Amino acid sequence: MSLTPPTVTDNRTTLVEGPAAGLLRQTSTSHIGLRVPDVPAAAAFYERVLGLVRHAELADGGARLGWGGGHHVVDLLPGDPGLDHIAFEVRDPGGLTGVEKRLRSAGLTVSALDESYLDSLDDTAGSAHGLVCTDPDGNTVQFHGPVRRPGEHAADTARRPVKYQHVTLSTADLVAMTDFYVGVVGFRISDQLADGGFAWLRSDSDHHTLAVVRTGRGGGLDHYSYDLAEWADFKSWCDRLTDDGVDVVWGPGRHGPGNNLFLFFDDPAGNHVELSAEMEKFHDDRVDYRPRLWEPVPRSVNLWGGQLANWRHTSEGS
Amino acid sequence: MSLTPPTVTDNRTTLVEGPAAGLLRQTSTSHIGLRVPDVPAAAAFYERVLGLVRHAELADGGARLGWGGGHHVVDLLPGDPGLDHIAFEVRDPGGLTGVEKRLRSAGLTVSALDESYLDSLDDTAGSAHGLVCTDPDGNTVQFHGPVRRPGEHAADTARRPVKYQHVTLSTADLVAMTDFYVGVVGFRISDQLADGGFAWLRSDSDHHTLAVVRTGRGGGLDHYSYDLAEWADFKSWCDRLTDDGVDVVWGPGRHGPGNNLFLFFDDPAGNHVELSAEMEKFHDDRVDYRPRLWEPVPRSVNLWGGQLANWRHTSEGS
Amino acid sequence: MSLTPPTVTDNRTTLVEGPAAGLLRQTSTSHIGLRVPDVPAAAAFYERVLGLVRHAELADGGARLGWGGGHHVVDLLPGDPGLDHIAFEVRDPGGLTGVEKRLRSAGLTVSALDESYLDSLDDTAGSAHGLVCTDPDGNTVQFHGPVRRPGEHAADTARRPVKYQHVTLSTADLVAMTDFYVGVVGFRISDQLADGGFAWLRSDSDHHTLAVVRTGRGGGLDHYSYDLAEWADFKSWCDRLTDDGVDVVWGPGRHGPGNNLFLFFDDPAGNHVELSAEMEKFHDDRVDYRPRLWEPVPRSVNLWGGQLANWRHTSEGS
Amino acid sequence: MSLTPPTVTDNRTTLVEGPAAGLLRQTSTSHIGLRVPDVPAAAAFYERVLGLVRHAELADGGARLGWGGGHHVVDLLPGDPGLDHIAFEVRDPGGLTGVEKRLRSAGLTVSALDESYLDSLDDTAGSAHGLVCTDPDGNTVQFHGPVRRPGEHAADTARRPVKYQHVTLSTADLVAMTDFYVGVVGFRISDQLADGGFAWLRSDSDHHTLAVVRTGRGGGLDHYSYDLAEWADFKSWCDRLTDDGVDVVWGPGRHGPGNNLFLFFDDPAGNHVELSAEMEKFHDDRVDYRPRLWEPVPRSVNLWGGQLANWRHTSEGS
Amino acid sequence: MSLTPPTVTDNRTTLVEGPAAGLLRQTSTSHIGLRVPDVPAAAAFYERVLGLVRHAELADGGARLGWGGGHHVVDLLPGDPGLDHIAFEVRDPGGLTGVEKRLRSAGLTVSALDESYLDSLDDTAGSAHGLVCTDPDGNTVQFHGPVRRPGEHAADTARRPVKYQHVTLSTADLVAMTDFYVGVVGFRISDQLADGGFAWLRSDSDHHTLAVVRTGRGGGLDHYSYDLAEWADFKSWCDRLTDDGVDVVWGPGRHGPGNNLFLFFDDPAGNHVELSAEMEKFHDDRVDYRPRLWEPVPRSVNLWGGQLANWRHTSEGS
Amino acid sequence: MSLTPPTVTDNRTTLVEGPAAGLLRQTSTSHIGLRVPDVPAAAAFYERVLGLVRHAELADGGARLGWGGGHHVVDLLPGDPGLDHIAFEVRDPGGLTGVEKRLRSAGLTVSALDESYLDSLDDTAGSAHGLVCTDPDGNTVQFHGPVRRPGEHAADTARRPVKYQHVTLSTADLVAMTDFYVGVVGFRISDQLADGGFAWLRSDSDHHTLAVVRTGRGGGLDHYSYDLAEWADFKSWCDRLTDDGVDVVWGPGRHGPGNNLFLFFDDPAGNHVELSAEMEKFHDDRVDYRPRLWEPVPRSVNLWGGQLANWRHTSEGS
C-alpha cells in the first residue's frame, strides 16, 4: 500500500511526491559496495580502466578504492555478483537527524553506521555520524554526514572520472521505492516516464542522484554512473576503452531526462557502468518545479535517434 | 479582460496557458524592424560590430541587413527610436493558416503581408505567404512561411552571431500579451517569474523565441538577442567589442529561465542587444511540460550571483 | 575475369592492386547525382539539415545544390530512388588525359562530359574538360579537371559540413570493381576486409575517397559522406539533427579502416549519409604503403565496441 | 619621506622605481595567513569551494591548507578578520641573502623565519631558510627559499585553481609601500594608475605578483588571487560556485593592467578572492620595460565596459 | 636627414616618435598588390591554399582576390617578383584628410587614388576617397576611407584566415622609414629592437599593422601576415599545408614583440606569408605607452627557444 | 650475424621481423635510469619543469621521481652522463615468462630483477617479478610485471605530462638491435626508414614504445618521450618552458612515422626530452599490418616542412 498512490489516467501513471519531498537539497551519492566473484580482477579493472586508487584492503579479500585521497568510492567484496550497499552524503544542516527521524516515524529500522565506512568525516561532532537502513526492495542504504574528497573533481581527460554521480536501482515496485526515497527520505522527482516505469530523483542541484527503473527484478543495481568533465572527454574515453579492450555497449548519446551525455560499458562482474556529462541543474532555492512526464519510447532515453543498449528491456525500450 | 486569467495566490501569479497553447512547434524569429534616428550610423554598427551584410537599400533611406545570403534579418528605418515590427517564420505544416484562423476568430484584424518583406521564400505555392496583425500593445507582428537562410548558422568566433534568436517585448499588461501570444497565436509558456512580471514563451525547441516583461511601458522592445555558438565565443566577442569601442553593459552571466549564457550591449540607437548561447531545449514531442515559476529576485535572471544591468528595473531587479 | 585476381589463402582474400594503382594522387570526390522521388522534399532537407545552398534549378524539376559559391555538390533528380552519377575532380597534372587513355586502352567507352556539369572550372584550356564512363556495375562515373570551391572547407560547427569527402558503392563483384578503379583508373587500396568483402580506395592523402562493399546488390550507393571539422562538432550536429527531427541511426563511433569518427543518418529518399572527421592521412610521396587486412568483424568497422547500424548486413556485420 | 618621490605633473603622479627595482626575477607568492572568526567554516569553504586540502592542524584551532602535496598555501588562524602575513618564495640565486641585506641596509628589522612555516623546502643548505619583516603598513612579510609544490599547477576545470598567484594590499600611503617593495625588496612596477592610486608590481614573468591600492585604509588585504588554466574554466567555476551557493560579485571581465581575465567572490570571512587567467608575461631578460600609466577610470580595471564590484571605491571606480 | 633622429647610447639606438605619432588610431591594413611571374599559378595558390576567392580579372592578366564579399585583399599583377603597393583603410574621423595634409606639409607628392582600387567604399561622400604616395624607400602606399568587408573575420579552422593583418617592409634606412610612417603618417612605435634594426608600428589596437626591418635591401616586402582565430588552427593549417604540398618554413612559434603566435610559408613567387594569432592589444584611449626595446637576439623574435627561419639574416638572427 | 637479415635491394634495406615478432601486445615503457653529473640540479629540473614528484632518495645521492603515487618513472643516478637502464612493464598474460624463455633460448644471460626497482607491483604472486638483461649494444634492459600507476594519465595542461611513452636508443648496428627487440623479445616493427637507418617498434597499441636510430654511436639514449594530452597543451608547455628559461630546440611539428605531434628540449644533463601527442594506434587483434618504409628525408621525420633539430644528424637529416 502506497503512502502516495500515483494518479492513473488513460495511459498515464503520474507519481505523487510524498510528504518529505525536497527536504534533502545538499545530499549526493557517496560510495557503493559491489559483491563480485573475482575481487582482484575487478579491482584491477577499476584501477586501470576507471583510474581509481586502492585505498585499503578489506576483510575477506575485499578491496576499497577511491580518488587517492579523502573518502572512498567503491568497495569490492567477494561473493556472488550483486549490490552490497549504496550510500549518500547528507550535507544539509540537520539533514542526517531529519532522515533518521522520518525513517523511524515510518516504522523502519535504523542502525548506527559502522564507523569503518567513514574514512574522511568532515566534522568531529560526537554521537553517530551515519545510519543505515533497508529500502523496500531490501537494498542496504547508508546515510552519513559531510566527508572530505579533496581528490574528487580533478578534471582528467584521459583516465579518471570527475565524481561518482548517480545510482539507478532495479525494481519490481516503483511506487514503493519512490514512496520510500521521496516520501520518507526526502528526495524529489525530477522526471518520470509517463507509464510510471522509470523515475529520476534528485537530492541536490543535479537532475538525479538516484533513479529507479521497473525491470520486474526487485533489488539490486540497474547501472551506476560517473561524471566526466565535458564532451571532449567522450572521445578520449572511447579511444582509451578500446585500448584497454573494453567495449562501449551504448552511446555516446544524450538522455532526455537529465539531458546528460552518456556512454555505457560493463565491469568484469557485469555491472553496467555509465559515464555522463552536462547533467541538467535544478535551482530549488529560486524555482518551483513539477516532475515532467516523458513518453516511454526509445527516443526519450536517447534523444539522438533512440539507439538502445542490448540489455535495456524496460518500458521505454520496446 | 483576460481569456485565461492567471491564478493568484499569496504572492504568486500563475499564468494560465490559453486554448491555442503549443499549436506552434516549428516557428522561430525571422526578422525585426527598428526605427533609428541615424540609419547610416546604425547600419555601419550592424555591419562592423555584428557582422551583418547590407542586403538592400529601403525607401526613405532605410537599410536592410542579413547574413549575406537568404532572408534578411534587420530593417533599419529612419524615425524616432522604436520598434517597427517583429516577424516569425512559421514552418509548422498548416501553421500559417492556423494562425490566421485563430487571429480572425479572436476578432483581430489580419492583413496579407506585403511581399516586399519576403525575399527568400522556400515555397512557391500561390495565395498569401505571410500575414500581419497587431498585438495588444500595438506592436506590428508578421508571420510568414518557410524561408531560406543558407548564410545563417555559420559559426563565427570573431565577427558574426549564429542566428537571430529571440525578442523580448516591454509591456504594461503582461496577461493580455500572453493571452494573445499563447492563447491565440499558439506559443507555450516555458517559464515565468512567480509574480507574473516576466514570461518566456516558446514556439520551437528553444526555451523561448519571445519573452514579455512588465516594465510599465506598453509596446516596444525590451531587448532582442542573437545566438553565439558557444562559451568560447564570449571572450572573443567581449575583446572585439572592446576593440570597437562598444561597452558590455551586462554579463557575461547565465540566465535562470532558459539557462542561457548572456552578455548585453547597446546599438547606437540605444536598443539593448543580447548575445546568448546554450539555451535549454524543449522536446514537446516526447515530454509533457508545465511552466516553472521563478522567484522574482536578481539571482533568477543572473544565476551567477545576481549582478544586473543598470537599465534593468523590473520586478526581479529590486 | 579479373585483371588482377586476388590471392586467396585459407580464409583470406587478398586484393591485388592492378597496373594503374597510385597514378592518381591529387584526385578527390567532386559531386554526386541522386534520383529521388520527391525533389522539393529532398532539396529542403539538404538546405535546412545539411546547410547546402540552392545553386540552380535543373531540367525536369531537378535541383542543384552546393556551398553557395564555386562548383556544385549534389544534383537531386526526379525519379525512383537511385544513384545517377558520381564524379571526381582530377587535379593531378596530366591526370585527366591519363585516365582517358587507360580507360580506352581497357576497351571501355569514354565520352566527353557535358559542360553543363562543370560550373566552376579552374582553367580555361581548350578541348574537353571532363569525361564520363561506366564502371563494371553500371554506375555512371565522371572525371573532370580542377574546379573552384571557395565556399568549401569553411568550418561550421552548427549547420554545414566542411566538404563532400567519399562515396561507398554497393557491389556484387568487388574484384571487378577494384580492377576497374585501381587497375585502370588509378586509385590505390588503403585497407580491405580480409575476406575481400570491403575495400577502401584512395586517390589523394585521405585514406579513402571511394569504397566498395560487397552487399550482393550490384550498382548504386551504399552510403556517402561529408567531413566535419572535429569531434566537438559531433555533439552540435547530433543535437541539431534532434532539433530537426532527424534520427542518428549509427554512431557516434570510430571506424577501424580510416580511423575516422562517424555518425550516420538518412535523407528523405533513404540514402545513408555519413558525417566524418579525423580520417587517416597517407603520404605517398614519402612512404611505401601496402593495403592492410582487417578481420571481417563488427569491431573492425566500429572500433568502439562494435555497435552497428540496423541496415548493415555485410560480411563484417554478423 | 620617500626614497624615490614620484614625479607629479598636472594630474599625473608617476611613480619612480627605487634602487633595488628588478633585482628579484624569480620570486613568486608562496602562501598567505588569514585571521578568520570561524576557522572550521572558513576551512570547509576552502576545502569544498576552492578544492584545497587540509595539510595540518595549527595551534589554537588554526588550519593549514594546500594542494595536497608540497608546501602549504593558506593558513586560517582564529581571530578578528584580518591579514596575518604574506609570504614570497625567492628562487633567484642569492636572492634571499640580497633581500636580507637590503632590508637591513634600509634600517629595517629582519628576523629568521620560524621553520614551522616551511614544510617543503627544496634545499637542505644550512643557515636560515627564511626571513620575516614588516612593511610600512605593518603587514608581516615572509621571504623564503625554493620549496616543492608538486601538486601545484595541476589543471582542474572543475574544482581547484592552478596556483596562488598574487596578493593586493590596501594602503593609505602608496608611495611608501612601493618605496619598500620596489626600492628595497626588489620588485618592479609593471603598471600604475596615472593618479598614483594603484600600482602593480612584478617579481617574475607574471605582470604582477603583488599590487598595492590606495583605499585610505593602511594595512591588510584588498583581495588575493588564484590562477585558473584558461577561459573555459570561467564557465565551469561560475556554474559550480552557483551550485555551492557562492555569489560571483564581479566579472567575468578582463583587467587592463595585466590583461588578465577575472572573476571575484568572497570567502566566509569576507575576504575578496579573485580567479584569474591569461596574465601578461614580462621577459626582462630580453626587453627593457617602463611602467605604463593607466587612466584612473572604470574601463581601465575592466576593459569590457567598466562594470565594477560594489566594494570597489578607489580612484578608478568613481 | 632625420626629422626625429634616434637616441644612440652604448649599443642602443632608441627610435624617437615624430610629431604625428599616434594620430591614427583606427587604421588597419586593407589590401596588397604583388607582382608575380606567373599570375595563374599564384592565383591558384591563393585560392586553394589561402582560401581567397577570385573577385575580378585585372588588366594585363592580373587577378584580384578577396573574402568572397566586400573589399578585395590581394592583387596579383604580372611582372618580376616584387611589391606593387600596400594600402591602409583609415577609419579615424577626419583621418584621411589629416594624412593628406601632413604628407603635403612634409613636401611629399600626393595623388588621388584611382577609384578602381576601391570596390566597397562604406560612405558615399563626395571628393576623393583615397590617396596615394610613395614612402622613402619608393614603395607605393595607398590610404583610403572605410570599406565594407562582410566576409572578413569569418573564423575558418581549415581553409581561410580571419583577416589580412600586417605587412613588414624591408629597408636599408629604418630611421627614414619610421620618420615617414610615424612622424608624418601617424603610426606609433610599439616595440623596436634595441639596435634599431626592427620596428613594429601600430595604427589601431593591434600591436602592429606595419613593421620595418633593416635588411640592407631598401624597398619591397620582408613578409606579410594573415590572422588565424586561435592556436587550435595552427595544427589544422600545418596539416592542410602538408596536404597541399606547402612547407612550413618557420614555426609554429611565438614572437616577443607582439606576443603573437606565428608560422611562415612561401607563396609560389617566393613571398614569405605569415599566419598569426593572439597579437597583443593596445588601449591608447586609456593607457600611456612608450616603445619597448628588445635585445637583438633570436629569442626575442621567437620566444620559444629562438629557432629562426633560414631566410632570416637580420640583426636579431645572428 | 643477424637472425633475420634485412632484404637489401637498390637503395632499400627492408628489415625482417624475427620469430618472436608480435608476441608482446600489452607491454609499455615503465621507467628509465639516467646517470647525471649533478643529481640535485637534474632532480630540481624534473620536479619544477616536468612536474615529477620526488618518490625516494636513492643510495649515493641518487633521486627517484614519479607521478606522486604508484610506480616511479625516473631514477637520477650520480655519474657521467649516460643511460643506466630502461624498463618495460609486461602486462601480457604469461608475457614475462615468455620473454625470459626466449632470452635464455637465444643464449642470453638473464637475472632476476632486484625488487628495489619495483615499488608498486600489481600482483603478489610468488617467484621473480622482474628480470634484467643486456641488449646487443650493452644497454641494461629490465622487464617486469604489472604495476600500479594511479597518478599516471592525469591530464595536466600546465605542468605534468600524461605518461612516459617511449625511448629511442642510439645504435651503430640497427639490425642487431631489431633482431634482439623484435626477434627475441617480441616487439613488432611499425615503421622504418627505407635505408634501414631508423626503426620504430611497438609492444602495445601505440605506434612505438621503443625506437632505434643509427647514429654510429652504439649504446645509450637518442632521446626519450612523454605524452601530452592534446595539441592545446603544446602552447601552454612552450609558454611555460619559456617562463622556466628552457629552450624548445625542435618543434612543434608532426612526425611522419607515428603521426605524433612533437616538441623537444634538453634536460640539464643534455638528454633530449620529447613531448608528444596523437600517436597512431595499432589494432593487432583485428588487423594484419606490415612495416611501412619511409624515405630517409627530413620531411619524413617532420611532416610540416622538414625543419629539424640541430642535433639531428642521422640518415634522414641530410
Topology:
The structure is a homohexamer of 318-residue chains.
Chain A: E1 7-9, E2 12-14, E3 27-36, H1 39-48, E4 53-57, E5 63-66, E6 72-78, E7 82-90, H2 95-105, E8 111-112, E9 130-134, E10 140-144, E11 163-171, H3 174-185, E12 188-193, E13 198-202, E14 210-214, E15 221-227, H4 232-243, E16 250-254, E17 261-266, E18 272-277, E19 287-288, E20 292-294, H5 298-301
Parallel strand pairs in A: 3-6, 7-10, 11-14, 12-20, 15-18
Antiparallel strand pairs in A: 1-2, 3-7, 4-5, 5-6, 8-9, 9-10, 11-15, 12-13, 13-14, 16-17, 17-18
Main attributes of the structure:
homohexamer, 318 residues, alpha+beta, 9-stranded mixed β-sheet, 8-stranded mixed β-sheet, 5 helices, 20 strands, 15% helix, 34% strand, globular
Q: Would you give an account of this structure?
A:
Six copies of one chain form a homohexamer. With 318 residues, the first copy, chain A, is of the alpha+beta class. The first copy, chain A, has helices at 39-48, 95-105, 174-185, 232-243, 298-301, and strands at residues 7-9, 12-14, 27-36, 53-57, 63-66, 72-78, 82-90, 111-112, 130-134, 140-144, 163-171, 188-193, 198-202, 210-214, 221-227, 250-254, 261-266, 272-277, 287-288, 292-294. In chain A, the strands form three sheets. Chain A has a nine-stranded mixed beta sheet, with helices on one face. An eight-stranded mixed beta sheet of chain A has the order 4-5-6-3-7-10-9-8, with helices on one face. The longest helix of chain A has 12 residues, at 174-185. Chain A is globular, with a radius of gyration of 19 Å. Chains in contact: A-B, A-C, A-D, A-F, B-C, B-D, B-E, C-E, C-F, D-E, D-F, E-F. Chain A binds chain B through residues 194, 256, 259, 281, 283, 286-290, 292-295, 297, 299-300, 303, and chain B through 194, 256, 259, 281, 283, 286-290, 292-295, 297, 299-300, 303.
